[in-house]
Amino acid sequence: MKILNFGSLNIDHVYEVPHFPLPGETISSARYSRFPGGKGLNQSIAMAKAGADVYHAGKLGHNSEFLLEALKESGVNTSLLDTTGSETGQAIIQVNPEGENCILLYGGSNQEITIEYIDRVFAFLTEDSILVLQNEINNLEYILGKARERGLKIALNPSPVDERLKSMDLSGITWLLLNEIESRELSGFEEPDSSLMNLLNRYPHMKIILTLGEKGAIYQDKNTRYVQPAYKTRVKDTTAAGDTFTGYFISLTASGLDIEEALDMAARAAAITISREGAGSSIPMLEEVKRYMQGKEKAVNIDM
To answer: Is position 258 annotated as part of the catalytic site?
Structure first.
């Protein structure tokens, strides 16, 4: 089984700041670092480190060699990547002393993906392939439509949520992985349970994984609900926590692991990630996750 991640690739410029600046305020950064990033790249690295056979499709511009190396070193197949873009995607990330982040994105080559390139990538897919998507690339609706026509299993992380995404037909999505903000934007409901019920009423065949930060995560489909506690750790940088959780969950579920175990391993992997600097470079290997916190808290199955 192939997992194809059609997603973004960014150069992350990370600034450690005492606090997020207010309008009109100028502050000094204590430290600057450059890391490989982008939700697509992060999730591909997480899936590969969790043991999946992952191919990444997307578009890179100049000065992107270290992004290619980061993918290859993590075991991601880069043979489908298009390297003819103009300016590689950029992210300006501020991280405060509590490890919280504030991110400004510039799409660059992530917004230069053509229909012709998409068609070439789809020619590579087989009927049992899994397609992983985020909303940091252009022509997402076209990709979703082609995947739906082919009957592929689709995992969507709808980030960032915008008006374009809200208008899309999400009925072909197998797994919808989103955080509280994205859930509220798509459903119109603030409270997580109300949001989940709204989304399931609209898309009854969807499997929804709602991440809640330090409160853990909820898995919900029409028959089953699991509640996964978060693992407590010292927070350094939360930038790739959600991407790590998403990548691990998809990879392990695709490999045949049951939902409870996949949720638990994803939660552990995310806890390790936030204890480190950077995005893609902070994601742990599967063996490290297995060793982490032997006294695990498994997800709680709640009968529906």
So the answer is: no
The single residue of 243, 258, 264, 303 carrying the catalytic annotation is 243
User: Is the backbone peptide bond immediately before 160 cis, with ω within 30 degrees of 0?
Assistant: yes
Burial annotation 140-175 (CB, 10 A radius, 16+ → b, else e): beebbebbbeeebbbbbbbbebeeebeeeebebbbb
Q: Could you give the CA distance from residue 8 to residue 56 in angstroms, rounded to a whole number?
A: 9
- Write the DSSP assignment of 51-89 as a string of letters: T--EEEE-B--BS-HHHHHHHHHTT-B-TT-B---SB-E
- 170-213 tens-digit pLDDT: 999 999 999 999 999 999 999 999 999 999 999 999 999 999 98
Amino acid letter, residue 99 = G
CA dihedral 241, 245, 247, 252 (to 10 degrees): 150
| Alpha-helix residue ranges (DSSP H) falling in 151-281 | 163-166, 180-187, 192-202, 241-254, 259-274
Instruction: Determine the Cα angle at 139 with ends 3 and 120, to 5°.
Output: 55
User: How far, in Å, CA of 1 to CA of 129, rounded?
Assistant: 6
Here the tokens at position 287 are: 């063996």
Strand 224-228 and strand 217-220: pairing? antiparallel
